[in-house]
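Q: What residues go here?
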C-alpha cells in the first residue's frame, strides 16, 4: 500500500475493532511503520469510530513528533518496532474476555492452549505480559522479553497487542485472541478445560512451527 492507503486502512481497522467490541471510545491504538524511520499512529483521546485520516499522527521511530498528538501508548509501539525488524503494523486493543483471563487468573504465564487446536495452529503460545502502567516506558520494557518471538500477547489488566507484517495480520491476531478466550471461558463455565493428549499437543506445535510465525 502507498501511504494514503495505509492511513485509510488504519481508520477502517479502528472501526472494525470497535464494531467487534475489541475496544471502546478512545481506547486502543494502531501504528504502521513508514519509510524514513517514521511511524503513523492513531492520536490520543479520539473515539476510534470518529477517527479521520487527517487525525492520524506521525512521529520518528526515536519519538520525535512530526505531526499531531500521538497516542500515549507510543512508547510500547516504539519498543515493538525496535525489537522486531519484520513488524510493519502494531495493533493494541482491549478485548474484554482476554483481559478478564488476566484478572481472574493472575497465576497464568500463557493462555491455556492444550485443549484447543486452533490456538496452537493459528497463533502458537500466547503469553500474558506482566502488568506495567499503561503509557509508560515500563510497558515497553515489560514486552522486551517476549519480542520478537511472540507476535500476539495479552497485556495483564490492560489489553492485548499483536504485531504483523501487514495491518490485516495484526488485526487478525486481536480478533483471533478474543474468539479463543471466549471459547475457553465457556468451557470453564461448562465443566472445565480438558487438554488433548500430550503427543497430539506436541504434533500440533510442530505443525505450527512449520507453518511460520504469522497469526492466522
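A:
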Amino acid at each position: 500500500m502507498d501511504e494514503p492507503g495505509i492511513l485509510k486502512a488504519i481508520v477502517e481497522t479502528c472501526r472494525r475493532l470497535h464494531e467487534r467490541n475489541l475496544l471502546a471510545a478512545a481506547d486502543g491504538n494502531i501504528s504502521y511503520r513508514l519509510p524514513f524511520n517514521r511511524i503513523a499512529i492513531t492520536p490520543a483521546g479520539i473515539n476510534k469510530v470518529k477517527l479521520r485520516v487527517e487525525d492520524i499522527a506521525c512521529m520518528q521511530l526515536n519519538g520525535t513528533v512530526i505531526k499531531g498528538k500521538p497516542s500515549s501508548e507510543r512508547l510500547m509501539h516504539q519498543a515493538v518496532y525496535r525489537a522486531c525488524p519484520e513488524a510493519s503494523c502494531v495493533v493494541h486493543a482491549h478485548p474484554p474476555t482476554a483481559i478478564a483471563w488476566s484478572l481472574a487468573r493472575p497465576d497464568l504465564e500463557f493462555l491455556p492452549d492444550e485443549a484447543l487446536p486452533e490456538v496452537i495452529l493459528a497463533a502458537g503460545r500466547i503469553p500474558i505480559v506482566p502488568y506495567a502502567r499503561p503509557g509508560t516506558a515500563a510497558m515497553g520494557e515489560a514486552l522486551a522479553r517476549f519480542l520478537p518471538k511472540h507476535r500476539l500477547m495479552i497485556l495483564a489488566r490492560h489489553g492485548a497487542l499483536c504485531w504483523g507484517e501487514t495491518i490485516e495480520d495484526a488485526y487478525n491476531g486481536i480478533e483471533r485472541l478474543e474468539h479463543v478466550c471466549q471459547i475457553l471461558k465457556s468451557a470453564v463455565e461448562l465443566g472445565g478445560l480438558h487438554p488433548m493428549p500430550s503427543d497430539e499437543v506436541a504434533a500440533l506445535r510442530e505443525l505450527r512451527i512449520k507453518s511460520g510465525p504469522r497469526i492466522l
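A: Context that may help when evaluating the design: The chain has one domain: 3-211. The domain at 3-211 is CATH 3.40.225.10 (L-fuculose-1-phosphate Aldolase).
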